[in-house]
Protein: Pyrroline-5-carboxylate reductase
Amino acid sequence: MGAMKTIGVLGAGKIGEALLSGLLHGGYSPDDLVFTERYPERAAELTKRYGVRAVDVRTAAEWADVLVVAVKPQDIEPLLDELAPAISHHTLVVTLCAGLPTALFERRLPEGTSVVRVMPNTPMLVGQAMSAISPGQHAVPADLAFVEELMSHVGKVVRVPESQQDAVTALSGSGPAYFFYLVEAMIDAGILLGLPRAVAAQLIIQSAVGAATMLAESGEHPVTLREAVTSPGGTTISAIKELEKHGVRAALLSAIEAARDRSVELGRAHQPE
Structure:
């Protein structure tokens, strides 16, 4: 990828911190990184933990080759107001903000700014993110290749057209929450059946880890793997019958569609009048 680029992470919440940690584990030096954080106590804690310098937005914009925007979507307008007069047109901007299109950044930042949109998810915190990346109007192939390498430090990466990013947000961006929700319900079911909470949790969590590993490593379609567990007249088919009777599949389809619609709304909220 050539010489190591300097990187500024704007917003050091959980996702921003996870990226800093992943980059350091991936070979970046603390001297190659800076971050911004609105709370001084949090900034001091992260500097102590990682040895990375906390700076203000203007300093990050003037110093870094790459700026990773990891703030909440509702905080983007004041951040762009700070960035616009300070950023160089050579700077690559990487946005991790859910629902916000590259056009928003291109409109508010200097003409020709390269922007790449990324939708990661919270397993980034354990180095197992699924990130989808899309180039903006001015991003060149080298920009996209760099962002792909950057995000590979915290998980797997796929390239998609930006028109698919709202669907990605709904499916994998929010996806871990759906799994946590199902695991929570299954643990409650174990308690209902008389198991201690700790035992139920251990059974379900390891079953989830094992099932995910089988999906990732076997190359089999999920239907094939499910059918292998579903014996004629057995316990599993009785459970599947109840799931279908209660419309669990349809509920998931509707839920993910609703998440997609909300992602679209977030982007529209920042469109020009």
The radius of gyration is 21 Å. The mean pLDDT is 94. The chain has two domains: 7-164, 175-265.
